[in-house]
Specification:
Elements (H helix, E strand, L loop, with lengths): L7 H12 L20 H11 L5 E4 L6 H8 L3 E6 L2 H11 L4 H13 L14 H5 L12 H14 L5 H19 L8 H30 L7 E4 L19 E4 L13 E3 L3 E3 L1 H5 L8 H4 L10 H17 L5 E7 L3 H14 L2 E3 L13 E4 L17 E9 L4
Parallel strand pairs: 1-2, 1-4, 2-3, 4-7
Antiparallel strand pairs: 5-6, 7-10, 8-10, 9-10
């Protein structure tokens, strides 16, 4: 078993990484606050423990791309997919390298931007997006100024010459708009938004430079790109996106949580009013309800739909694994008293065996659990809930050595 080869110091680092409560920082991780993302420190130590440089690391529910960023920074090949096109946009932005010349062009563009974000300028209305409903709940008397600033900024992003640069700029605008609108009691004034946008661009440039430096040190002049694509994990073994890829050494992921309310695809405006505006900013279409991204309605009795989707997805994952693949999941449950056993039964049904790692266990059940403080899942509920406690699950193919 792989952990038997680790030193006591390495095992202690892994335990501390699972339990860490440090804020998400470093590399390009702060590009966007994607819901339910796990700690880069956790991802980093898991990747170090279960893989070696050059191995393939795969995240089939990649969200904001934490696994991919850490894997590539550690010299591993990284592949990820998600059914949420917004997640794919964010992961691509976080894992895209920019040359010094491309960064210089973004810096020059940024210097010219503030005077262009003036509410007295003629509007550049995103009429088609508005008609499709992507500006829902951000045209109110308290939010229309931010909406117009976003429209003005988007019109000037097209001045950047390459798709990579435009994606970076869109992501900086996405980050700033999230800061301004999502779960805010008070919407910031225009000057604050402008200043925050410029600040975010500058911070993100420093982050992408740091990421590029680390990648260059790992790979030299030959940099294997991260592969990010939009699509379901169900059927991945037959997908053209998987053609030419070997079985991963590690699948490191955080799948949808059973029965837990997480809004992956909307921002919350003035309480519980939702807007799909992030898709508009990312230039990505969305036409799905929340249950599409969470494997089913959390209010469904026995969560039948959730567990059917889980079985279909992990059956496909089992088919791309080999006897050396480790599957490490970080997951929470709305009611672990029955959902954990049901979840593990699904894993067993698709040919995956849970591995208890005694060196890591901090609970009588032989598993490692972690507390996530102040998790609210976009609701006015703080403090301890069942979903505030996550468990790390380790699996391998049945009969794997």
């Amino acid at each position: 078993m792989i952990l038997m080869l680790l030193t006591e110091q390495a095992i202690n680092k892994l335990v501390l990484a699972v339990q860490t409560k440090e804020p998400v920082t470093g590399l390009t991780h702060s590009f966007y606050n994607y819901p339910a993302r796990f700690s880069p420190h956790f991802a980093r130590e898991i990747i170090k423990a279960f893989t070696k440089p050059g191995d393939l690391v795969y995240d089939p529910f990649m969200g904001g791309g934490t696994t991919l960023v850490e894997a590539s920074a550690l010299g591993r090949r990284a592949v990820g997919n998600d059914i949420n096109s917004l997640a794919v946009f964010i992961a691509q932005a976080k894992t895209t390298l920019l040359s010094a010349a491309e960064i210089a062009e973004i810096n020059n563009w940024t210097l010219t931007l503030p005077p262009k974000l003036n509410l007295h300028h003629p509007p550049v209305r995103a009429i088609e997006w508005a008609e499709l409903g992507y500006q829902r709940n951000i045209n109110t008397k308290t939010t229309w100024r931010i909406r117009k600033l976003i429209e003005l900024a988007l019109s000037h992003i097209l001045e950047l010459p390459t798709e990579k640069q435009q994606r970076f700029a869109r992501c900086s605008l996405l980050k700033t708009a999230q800061w301004a609108l999502d779960c805010r009691k008070e919407v910031p004034i225009v000057s604050s938004f402008r200043n925050q946008l410029i600040r975010n661009i500058n911070i993100m440039i420093e982050s992408v430079e740091q990421y590029a430096t680390i990648i260059e040190e790992r790979y030299g002049g030959s940099v294997p790109p991260c592969v990010c694509f939009c699509g379901s994990t169900d059927g991945i073994e037959n997908s053209s996106q998987w053609d030419g890829l070997t079985s991963p050494s590690l699948i490191l992921t955080s799948p949808p949580y059973p029965g837990v309310h997480v809004v992956y695809h909307r921002w919350q405006i003035h309480g519980r009013k939702e807007t799909p505006a992030p898709f508009w900013i990312a230039n990505s279409l969305d036409g799905n309800g929340g249950a599409y991204y969470t494997f089913g309605d959390r209010r469904q009795k026995h969560l039948t739909g959730y567990f059917e989707q889980t079985e279909a997805n992990f059956a496909s994952l089992a088919k791309v694994c080999n006897e050396n693949t480790w599957i490490v999941q970080l997951i929470a449950f709305s009611d672990p008293t029955w959902q954990l056993d049901r979840y593990l039964t699904v894993m067993d049904d698709v040919g995956l065996t849970e591995i208890r790692l005694d060196q890591l266990a901090n609970s009588p059940d032989g598993r490692i659990w972690r507390d996530v403080p102040n998790r609210k899942w976009y609701a006015e509920q703080k403090g301890y809930t069942n979903s505030s406690k996550e468990v790390v699950l380790f699996h391998r193919l049945k009969h794997a050595p």
